[in-house]
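For practice. Any example?
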Amino acid sequence: MPVSWDDTAALTDAHDRFLAGRLVRRAVRPPILSSWERCRSLGIAADHVEVLYHTELDLGGSLADAARPVLDRLETQVSGIRVSAVLCDQDARVLERRVGEHSLNRFLDSLNLAPGFAFSEELTGTNGMGTALAARQPAFVCGREHFADIMRQFACAAAPIRDPLSGRVVGALDLTCNHRHADASMLGLVHQAAVDVEQRLLDRITARERALLAAFPRGSPREAADALGRRDRLALEELAMQLIAAGHAGVAEAWLPGGRGVTLWCHEARSRSGATGFLVEAVLPGGGLHRCAPQDSLGSPDAMGPPGGPGAVPVAHAPLAHAPLAPETSAPATPGPETPGAETPVGGTPGPEILVPETLVPTARSADAPAPFGEQPRGEPLAVGEPGVSRLALLARERLGLLCEAGVTVGTTLDVTRTAEELTEVAVPRFADYVVVDLPDCVLRGEEPVRTDGPLRRVAMAGAGMASHLYPVGESVGYVPSTPQARALATGDPVLEPYLHEAHGWLAHDPNRGGRVLRAGIHSLIAVPMRARGVVLGVAGFYRSALKQPFEEDDLSLAEDLVSRAAVCIDNARRFTREHATALALQRSLLPHGLPAQHAVEAAHRYRPATTGVGGDWFDVIPLSGARVALAVGDVVGHGLHATATMGRLRTAVHNFSALDLAVDEVLTQLDDLVCRLDPEAMGRDGMGAEGPAPDAPSPGGTESAAGPDTADSGHEPGIVGSGCLYAVYDPVTRRCTAARAGHPPPALVLPDGTVEFPDVPPGPPLGVGGLPFETADFEVPEGSLLVLYTDGLLTGATGRDAEVGFERLRTVLARAGRTPEQACDALESLLPDRPADDVVLLVARTRALADDQVAVWDLPADPAEVSRARQEVLDRLTEWGLEEPAFTTELIVSELVTNAIRYGREPLQLRLLRERALICEMADGSSTSPRLRRARTTDEGGRGLFLVAQLAQRWGTRYTEHGKVIWTEQPLPRGGVR
């Protein structure tokens, strides 16, 4: 933890180590360390500082007048104590000084802590008033926490003073004493004093407005022919703000819903003391809302010119004094002229001043305008205010509107680059003429930045013109320590450079490019670090050109708010990018890296992950016994790591079920049962809910969650019920395919002539529903046809949710003869959008067939004498195929298989020999009993035949058919054994 502010020895050591360039992050309070880093970036020397004197000071301005009573109170509170109270302006120039002991004046004069001298952080380093103004928040600096050696004997507590309307920092209050007498309560005392000054500034503004409204003469109200609702009143008040902010008299016409026209009359009023303001009155057709008899003090209504002038545009509502508009509203809180002197305004003036309205400048009246005011009684005041105050209020409302728009338009995607672009687009041209965003490359990859003092990548830029000469998008930018961007990254605080031609640190980065930028008209800069969750992600730069005023201090808060919102969105996008990359890497590792060696089909595949999150789409090609091959495509519901992990579990299960040589529908049935068991496990309980609390049990805190017991645990993984799968088995001997599907689109079949069909595979329920059977479809597949399996993202990716249109587009793309599987995959990718919302898997297989001379079949009677004939038939066929080498072992295998079938099986009996990539021997019989491999004892007469088969064959197994079972073996072929 940082050392205490009164630990002088530790702070002195930390200061020395900081000046030596060593790490002191754990030894200094964060606000002080940030100030030290700003001082170092500005090149301030700790052993020598300069205090400048300024002759042009506003010692009698509104800030000094408002602060004077507060300083008087502070002087009384610290009377008899060697403490000074100092008021400074926004540039840290001392305006007024008070002391608790008069003997302290001479000492402070020797240190130049007197009116006219400036103690900004840029000149004198870390100190109370300078640091409070730089950080725009209260600051407490004690002893060695001062950057300059000459100031280490002091303890300073300072708080900034803000303009109550614009929020701009206009000055600061500071309490200074010897560091040995420092007390942390000084900060609370000076902060409250600053709040009191801000309140007095606000009172001075509102007092004038209240006086204007109170002085407006009113007669007895009478109901008008038309009444205004609340929405109409608010709209007219906003129009009134626009007129007041314009700063000149005039008449505007407005139209309300229903075709009603309203005339707003804005005229200047001046008091006898010379104070001026503007009043806006509203008059409806038919006489207005409240009518008053003309007053002698206001002059004759006939003297007013006809209404006209430009129409007002609705603008933001401003915090000005509003008069009640509708007849049914209560009377205003401020006294009217009927009770003169009943209330003294806040500003201290004894009684309201009677204001005399100016005469309007005559303007041309449009043909559709209401009748002139000359013969109408005056309306009730709608709003009253001063032009400068209204402009500030309108500006504040515009900034609030910009922040609201940023909250809606920034962060609409989980893409880092697009989010940065949205920030630049929302700020141009309403706040800045050019906006740039620079991020480290690691952020673009989804990683958390370790350091931001290295090269950055410009990822987004928006501007009013192209000839800005700023670094273009995609270029690497390395900021030197003196630049505002580097200082912002180092300190974590925004940096304002109102005049770039005077910013020597910015020019030192690239003098040639900087000169071109200045010549292009860019003159002002705000650099804001992009900080989210305690991590600095990059920096944003706001530039203004010659067409706009330079950035001011109050623009920093708006820039910070914009960037802070965007930084959180960018950090969310970065985290998503990291998780997406992790899930994608896991997804690709769980998918087949290559297709297994088999002869039945020639296959190609594609996988396109979704941009919004990696899903659970998968595919597989699984060689089966009897030269067959299984083609599987599936889709797990949901996205993210959970879906990817579930996909891996389902794919492993399909492999296991396929290895058992289960029927196609039985594979889906077993998979469905597995999903039923996996889904409750994902929800944190077993199939009967035994591991979790009972549905009516209270939560661990003793009370049930408001969301109910089923949703109280926010850590539950999403369920996997609803996952889909298409499983098909192709037999190259029979040239037939058997397929079944569970909540999945049917396959497409492209015949050799280019005709596209969608085989009628009966739809089955999605996996996890349970209790329903799956039906299969068996259809012929000519040799050279394409079997196309895909996930639903291919159908809906480019056409929204209309799957029928997707089928037609799929048919159109596939309708071409002579394509290879790779070419078909390339053609199908044209159906996908650039940024698919769902994962897409393609599996295209071109079928092959075994020729007649590669297959030998013998039907055998259940006669033991047939065993020798079967051996001889096999030997003759192997000789014909040129496979004399494996003939002996094959003869032994055939002898054992045929003998077991005759002895233990039932008719019909059939022996089949296949010459493919391996030599396959199959013995089929009508029995469903499964042989079992066991180790025979020395005294057993039998039980060694199946063991002998297992030793001689490379693989062996059993598969069941509709009419019985098949025991099969595979033996490797010798080199050159395939003709």
Q: What stands out?
A: The chain has 23 helices and 32 strands. Confidence is low (pLDDT under 50) at residues 216-226, 287-378, 682-716. The longest helix spans residues 555-590.
